[in-house]
Amino acid sequence: MPAISPLDGPVAVTGCSGNTGGHMVRELAIQGYEVRACIRDANSWRGKDSVDYLSRLPRVEIMDGCDLFKAGSYDAAFKGCTAVFHTAAVLGNSADGKSQPLGSGDRQMDVFNGGVIGTQNVIDAITASGSVRRLVYTSSMAAVHGIGEARQVVPAGHEWTETDWASNGIDPEIWQDPGNAYARSKVETERLINEAADASSGKWDAVTLLPAMICGPILFKAQVGQWIEQIGRIAAGLATTWLSEYDHYYNIIDVRDLVKAHRLAAESSVDHRATTGGSRYLMHGSGGRSALRLGTEVRAIIHEYFPAFTLGNPKTVTASGEPVTVQSSTVNDCKKAKSVLGATIRPVEDTIRAIVETSIELGIIEPQLAEPARDA
Ligand SMILES: NC(=O)c1ccc[n+]([C@@H]2O[C@H](COP(=O)([O-])OP(=O)(O)OC[C@H]3O[C@@H](n4cnc5c(N)ncnc54)[C@H](OP(=O)(O)O)[C@@H]3O)[C@@H](O)[C@H]2O)c1
Questions:
Q1: Domain boundaries along the sequence of the chain
Q2: Which atom of ligand 1 is nearest to the CA of 91?
Q3: What pTM did the predictor assign?
Q4: Cys-Cys link to 354, which of 48, 85, 217, 349 (CB 3.0-4.6 A)?
Q5: What is the CATH number that goes with domain 9-215+253-284+332-342?
Q6: Cα separation values, 231 from 27, 141, 182, 248, 291, Å
Q7: Mean pLDDT by 10 residues, the chain (376 residues)
Q8: Which has the closest alpha carbon to 186: 139, 251, 123?
């Protein structure tokens, strides 16, 4: 018997003006679920843009005013729900130090507190509901290997698994550094959730998905950011801007595969806590490919599908003439999510092509056509 099914009653999703949240609502709605789509501010441009899309989906109710920094703001949304998909986080556009009306104004503090304090508010609303049986949380590969200067040093060929934690063996001073707020927030939020689920005496349990860089088709403009935006920029012949103008690698995961895995995690009757690494599922590596380099591999895929476009080219040499060093990572290919949850992972080529196609359809980019080679 599935733990949760569309016949059991409504489910709620947090962060629905975002990339993962918007796709999560779509995935659940087309599988027959009645969905409460939690939005922070339906009058913001991201709010309006997402509501315009989400309200056209069947059996979706928009729940406005759900702010991670406001205790009690998820109570009405979760009342009577059987599951909560918690994708909201202070991230990207929402983490510029200006876009958190109830935040501190300090970007890193808001990133950290949005995870820990925000998720405590989500947990309190689950407890208040008395009906929620499962929380599915979106963590990050940052909670596995850390990021930036706090990235774990591992031997060549190390394959990240659900047993790896970014906090393992790290110098406490580096771990507490504000620049490491995101990874620390994800690790501490995972622990908070697991402890709260244990303390609920079986009323609800928790499952965590840990995605790499989330890519895939754009449903509405508010979803554009990070690598989705950069892949669009390359297709439009523009310079890349994030993380910088320089070439780099990322592990990617298709958002469609990611949200499907979230749904399967909610529906699965497996005892997730008893599986290797506990109730965590890494979501990185697509079809045996994992760390793609933006300026070579991603660019080559765009060229293959869109040969007439003049493409942008991330810089590979610094202003002082030094070659840019790029960091690779090893493939896990969602092994546990595939074997335990039945997750399916599409080839990265589909993901890259979908980003470019939807960027054009939604008017986000305007490709420049290359002059065809002429015979002499
Ligand atoms: N981006 C990635 O590649 C990536 C990789 C690994 C893990 N993750 C994790 O995956 C999850 C989804 O990421 P994403 O890329 O889909 O994020 P996203 O597109 O930036 O969306 C974030 C969502 O969180 C909401 N939010 C921000 N501050 C909030 C607050 N104070 N109260 C309520 N909602 C708030 C945003 O609402 P507003 O529009 O109102 O700001 C938005 O709906 C996050 O937990 C993230 O940490 C992301």
A1: 9-215+253-284+332-342
A2: 20
A3: 0.97
A4: 217
A5: 3.40.50.720
A6: 24, 20, 23, 12, 15
A7: 89 98 98 98 97 98 98 98 98 86 94 98 98 98 87 81 93 90 97 97 97 97 96 97 87 95 97 96 80 90 97 89 72 90 94 98 96 66
A8: 139
